[in-house]
């Protein structure tokens, strides 16, 4: 069973001049006669490897515009895949035209705080993805240094699996794994410092990299959004439990409390949950960029 539930992925909208390539959990990809890729962020939202049956209005635009903000801020560290933001009107604000990339087959995750699957692993062996950590840390604790915690890339409906650096090296090669690790940590540390200046803790985030036609490593997909990151309010952060967040952790918490078993198609989301999730995404955008969405 796929993460889209019994009905499968929704039909992608027709866009003049573009041919649909594939539909992901939250994005639709198209190509044109030049070989460019139109990357469209939908309003779909996923959690626990399932795509929810209810959309979050405006979410696709928030993700796209926030990614553009970060791509611009971080372009001195690594080039990104952007070709143009001049997109068809039907997908205005929530799409970008990008280079086709040969993507690396690992998720590049950086963590500066202990939570989520990292916290679960730490409780078992005092380490996360092979990174040995000090004793006595709590859920939400800040780490002494940011760590690289890669994961496998799963098909829709399957689980990403946390791996150590050695396993990542076997997948992409030792040289590339080392470069991806160094890039991931530099991007994370730079973004975390900036976010902290805006009163936001960037607890962890996921990057995706690929090679362009010139063979250069390029930052692709999205960057530092509430879908790929955990954003906490610095003013009320207290280690020792779940932190109030500006990301989809709010949705995850609701789903756990709802009694959904995570193995069958998820339920429709109540209006209140949809509205509060949208508010958190927009608040993250405002706090980080200084602009109202």
From TrEMBL:
<feature type="domain" description="SAICAR synthetase/ADE2 N-terminal">
    <location>
        <begin position="21"/>
        <end position="264"/>
    </location>
</feature>
<dbReference type="InterPro" id="IPR001636">
    <property type="entry name" value="SAICAR_synth"/>
</dbReference>
<comment type="pathway">
    <text>Purine metabolism; IMP biosynthesis via de novo pathway; 5-amino-1-(5-phospho-D-ribosyl)imidazole-4-carboxamide from 5-amino-1-(5-phospho-D-ribosyl)imidazole-4-carboxylate: step 1/2.</text>
</comment>
<keyword id="KW-0436">Ligase</keyword>
<keyword id="KW-0547">Nucleotide-binding</keyword>
<dbReference type="InterPro" id="IPR028923">
    <property type="entry name" value="SAICAR_synt/ADE2_N"/>
</dbReference>
<dbReference type="Pfam" id="PF01259">
    <property type="entry name" value="SAICAR_synt"/>
</dbReference>
<comment type="similarity">
    <text>Belongs to the SAICAR synthetase family.</text>
</comment>
<keyword id="KW-0067">ATP-binding</keyword>
<dbReference type="InterPro" id="IPR018236">
    <property type="entry name" value="SAICAR_synthetase_CS"/>
</dbReference>
<keyword id="KW-0658">Purine biosynthesis</keyword>
<dbReference type="GO" id="GO:0005524">
    <property type="term" value="F:ATP binding"/>
</dbReference>
<protein>
    <recommendedName>
        <fullName>Phosphoribosylaminoimidazole-succinocarboxamide synthase</fullName>
        <ecNumber>6.3.2.6</ecNumber>
    </recommendedName>
</protein>
<dbReference type="GO" id="GO:0004639">
    <property type="term" value="F:phosphoribosylaminoimidazolesuccinocarboxamide synthase activity"/>
</dbReference>
<dbReference type="GO" id="GO:0006189">
    <property type="term" value="P:'de novo' IMP biosynthetic process"/>
</dbReference>
<dbReference type="GO" id="GO:0005737">
    <property type="term" value="C:cytoplasm"/>
</dbReference>
